[in-house]
Amino acid sequence: MHRTALHRRRPPPARLPGHRDHQACGSGRSLRLPPPATSRPRPPGRYPGHFAANAFRAVRTGQPGRGYRIDLGGAFGMAPQQESAAGVLDHLDTRVPTSFYWSLTLLATVGGFLFGYDTANIGSVVNFLPWNLGSLALGYLVAGASIGAAVGALAAGPTSDRLGRKSLLVVDAAIYALGALLSAFAWDAWVLLVARTLIGLAIGADSAIATAYIAEYAPKARRGALGILQQWMITVGILISYLIALAVLIPLPQHVHSFDWRLLLGLGAVPAVFALVLRTRMPESPRWLMRQGRYDDAHDALAKLDIDVSAEQIERSAREVDERESQAGRPARNWTRGVKRALIVVCVFFAFQQITGINLPFYYGPKLLQPYLQNGGDKVQAAVAAVAITAGMSVVNVVATYFAFKFIDRVGRRKLALGGYAVMAVAMLIGAAGVAFTGGLTRIILIMIGLNVFIAAFAIGVGGTGWLIQGEYFPTAVRGRAAALGAAADWIANFALILLVPTMLNGFGLAWLMVLFAVLSAVALLFVNSYIPETKELSVEEITEIFERQAAS
Question: DSSP state, 36?
Answer without folding.
Answer: P
